[in-house]
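Amino acid chain
________________
===
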Amino acid sequence: MNERPKPGEDEDDLLKLQQQFLNSGGSQMSSASIKRPDKRKTRDVVNMEGVQVESGGSQHNVKKSKFKQEQEVASPSRVCRAKSGDCETMEDFERAMDNKDSSVAAVLTSIIVPSNTKGGKTKKKSLFAQQVESQGPEHFGVDSSHRMPAFRQPDKVMDSETPNCQPFPGNSVSSVLDGSGLSVSNKKAEIEQIHQENVEKLTSMSEEEILDEQQKLLDLIDPKLLDFIKKKRTAVARTNMEAHGTSKSESFSFMREKKKKEKKLNETVLESELPLKPSKKWVHMDTLEPEKLEWIKDLPPPPSADDAGTGRPARFDFEGNVLAVDIDIPVNMGLHHHGEEPERAGYTLEEIFQLTRSSNLQQKTFAFHTLAKVISKAKSGKLSEKVQSPIIPTILSGGVLMLLRWGLDDSAVAVVAAAVDALHALLWNPLDEALVHRMDLLMRFRYIMESMHPQANTVISLLEILTRLAEHSSATAYKILKCPGLIDKIVKEFIPTAWSLKETTGPVSNVYGIPVPTAVKLLRVMCQCGRNIASILTSKYNIKLVLLRYLSVEISDLHLPLKEASNLQVEALALWRTCASYGLATETYFDLYSNITMYLGQLEKHWSTSSSSISGHRHFDTHLVCVLEKMLYVAGEKRSKSDESNAREDFLYEMNWSHVTSLIRPLLACSQKVLSDIGGTYPQQRQDLHFPTAGINFLASFYNLEGQQSGVDEVASLEGIEQFCSSCLDPLLDSYGFQLIVEKLSTFSNLLAAKEDKKEALVPHCLPSYGVFLSIETNGSGQRSETYTTNMPILSQHSPFGFLTAVLRLALSVSKRHKAMILKVLKPLVMNRDILLYMKKTCAALNRSQYSTSLFTRAENLLQYFWLKCCVLVPCDDMSIAHRVSLNLMSRLGHGDEHLIHDLITTVIFNQAFICEGSSDNLTSEAMASLTLSDSLHLKSATQEEISVSKSSLLQDVYNSLAKIRGHYLMAFGGMERAVSNSRNFFTGKPSETQSLLFKCAGESLMPKDWIYMPLIHVYNKTIQSQNVSGLSASPQSIAMVSSVLQWSFALEVWRPGEIGQVSATVRLSRILCAFIAGNDLFLERPVNHYLAGLLREFSTQRVLDRLSFEEKIPGMTSFYDLYQEVLDHYEAVSFGDAVFGLFVLLPLQQRHTSMLRKAVWGERRKMLRTLRIPLEEILIPLQNFLEPEESDPELLHLQLSALVSGAVQPMWSPLLYLVAVHHVNRFLFLDPMAEHQTERAKVKERLWAQVIANMDKMADVIFYKQFSTSQPKGIDLYDCLPPNRQATLDYHISKTKHAHSTC
């Protein structure tokens, strides 16, 4: 039995024992290592490279260091044999699997040290064991080429790529030549002769010449052949090693002496340069490691601000802050480490990522916590100005989710907590849920209000913060409501019903115990968030009593400062209006009925008075009229029998139409006075239009609801409408004041706003923002004035959109009640010259305004919607303008406008009256034009059926099928039924059905720009989910749906190019290509195939072809290339050579697009070249697009020439591709000027010439090609005799090829 090392033995004794072990052959090794480890003892595990230990039992999978993994990557011959490919041990097999793994986990593992868990914890090794493992057995005199009899291990050979070295000195055997092709009798002699000639040639050459020739050979030799030669050289080197190898003892002694000499040399050379003098007393430190001792020196100073430059990696401290490049931080702060740029403090993101996989618990913990703080500060926007690229996308692409998932799997609680902290920072939006309205902060707000009693400004700030948060979402408002004691404290202190304030003239410093308008606004905003919240607030905090207390007295009797009292009443009315929208707090109407009657009697007086003291009354009057309009909807709502049978004490079911009929008389009289003044004096006085807008909306709602009530005297009602129109509405529409208001539409339009640089957001992007920026104008002395300007024109003073929208509403209401008023009232509005001019301008705007999706642009959208509804009753002079307006409006309407979208689809979009181009007269004239312009299509389908349809016939079919097309679109949008219902309830004012008054934050529209293709995408997705591509044919419903989409898209391409042009040509083509892959034979159906052919003609026009860019991002797709691959797969499988399908396949193959698309056909799908049989005369795309610019991709040129040589492309079955290949190969061979200046292109050109000359019998068209000509049979015009310069080029390459063959 072999002896084991004993304490006190030195290195020589250990090496001697090791040599004895090697000489014994390791026969007893198995019995020594099969024992299970004793948990009570620890032993050193020494892994000697080249000396493997056999084990009959299972071994622990020892974690390898990063350096060890790099060594294994650098020496792949240690993993598996090159010839057989069979791994020699299970460890070699696992190592080979790791080396071949290219997944994300493998990439992260290769740069990060995994953590040691309890289950796989390795024993700590001694310094000697670590040194043996890191430096290898050769450092201790062990021959690594020695192997045990029980194992086979590949030998380590010298680098075969060294140009002027041999595996062993004196070797005269060639490692490349094996005698293949030589005579059998003199094979050995000829090999030696050739080898000696090669050696002599190499000896006579300089090192630079050898390297140059070697590089030339490496460029010319096939990489696979080069690998083969290297493997042969490795095998010869092994044979020579075995033939000339020394004995084990000689190798051991030689290596030992060599290491001793190197050790002495290091000591003599480096000792004087070391930071400190080594001592012999240091245990196991006799081997100097100068690179590690360098860390004992002082750090160099950080770079100065002038030398810092740009592009350095950002470094963060433990709080997530970016450290400046030139900052000087003491080393005791723990921010310096042994990485790159040791003089700079902090950690880069890459270093933080690596530390999260450290085996040290503290390092992992602080790395996760630091990462969490970096993410939090990045999301708050604090780091955006300090880094060049966004941090969050960078760490997401770097695999942060995988790192966090690994952290959650850690066994240490501290690491898991830190990983959760980082994951929380990444996934949980701090500004949405945790900035202020987290429960602890809400409780803190309550504590501040209860215990600290701050002054008025602080209280108002807290209330405004809560209001801003409540506007964000219903969930946020509900959390504020449920915060214990918060709303109770606010209502008790700041919305009291009894208070006493001695001094009402000056500012109030303490607002406790007195009403605060901001607190009332908070309740109003919370009520807007949903019916449930409004019901809780109304019942729990007795909102009805609060409203009665604040609104039952005059402003002067509130015992508050005048401005505060006025604001309090306005906010109380706004809160009442919000509650009334749900049918709540309606009994307050009866309690304040006498006061309301008194207020209505003073409306006309307040309007006529122009003093500034009346401005507060006008705000009050405006909000009062709005409240009364809501009462109309409560009283006029139709109730079902089930609702009437429910015995509930709710005034929603007790209020009826008779309770509000008395309101019409005073409001009608006041409206007549107001509208008369606007028509006559608006040019001089420029009255504020808010109160007139409220009055007109009240009248519109009244006339609309009155027609739905039972028991109404229709005759008297219609006479009243006629009298109102004659005495008030008609004079207004004819007045100069009204005309002046209409003229300002374009000036105050958000859609026509001039392009300007967007201002930076005043709040972080995570918070909801409406995109409004106000600037305060100052006077000459620099003091603030009361004049504010806004970036949105529609919010400017005297904006006409609200007023004109109300006028359109009123005109529609009276026209629906009294049909005789249609021409009298609607026609002046529909035919108004300035309104039509404004509509044309919005259609002609090529680029969408930056405010097109703003929440405030909704007022402009409503005006266009009501104008379109008027056009339904009275057609305007140019109905195409109205149709274009409706198409643009569809892509702008936002969330909450689902009812408007549904109504536009139902009544406007597919209404024949709005598509004047489809009338019989226009279609007849277009049909006559098609006879002279050759507008008909002549193609053959896959069944050889003649496709001969004209544009006019296709458009006629679309015009006659508009009702069917509308039905299919409504069916496709059937999933929006609930949203449409909620939106309809809000717009029609049904209090019992209204669920919320909250609109989503602006910034995105409800319908995408390419909404016309949504039914087609729905069919495509349904097909993919059901795996219908390889199964059954498309259903009749799918065929009808796809046909309708193609019909409508074709009609828009012809009739509305400007509107459909807002969707990029690439996106439109991508959507249409889905029709080919949405079913096996869907594209072969007659209506589908015909309209695909019609769309093909539109996409083949140069106007559209120039706008195609297949590198742009397509919504819903990773890239166009992936979609094109799917289209090609489908074409190969089920196209049957269909001409329409083939022409769509050819569209991306034009020369102006990326060569990747052309390689997908020429390289990956060579068989498909035979199926593109479209004759040249049937190709709608200009042939010049496939020939210019000339091909410059060498790989693609090689593929095209190979297709010509192999016969994959022939003029009989693929005329276009044959022409393309001949043209580009010919131009590259004869006319490529870049080949003279670029070595690589010259080499490619030589290879192509060699291939052409080797197949001269097949290359006549390539050599004699002159230009393309559709009049020729093949589309090719050939030279009868080559021009002199081309002939000279051809002769040169022919002679060069012959010379090369003769030399060989």
